[in-house]
Description:
Blueprint: H1 10-19, H2 24-49, H3 55-62, H4 69-76, H5 86-97
Helix pairs in contact: 2-3, 4-5
Amino acid sequence: xxxxxxxxxxxxxxxxxxxxxxxxxxxxxxxxxxxxxxxxxxxxxxxxxxxxxxxxxxxxxxxxxxxxxxxxxxxxxxxxxxxxxxxxxxxxxxxxxxxxx
Length: 101
């Protein structure tokens, strides 16, 4: 590998390889995500250095939080139940189970 700021350290790549049982797709995906995270942090650092208060906005736009269980269940309910997958039914079940009686 080249010595580039976005190149993951060899130790990290070896960790990914052991965790993914050598799946090159999984390793490539993790490397791409890691590189994108490094680039985002570098951009945020430059924004702060230049006095721009946009870091929270940039993080929210580029790394949005996944929808909550409630949001996922409500989204599923927008569609007819005969179109729901088993995974979507499970999401609704988990959301209902999380409600305190």
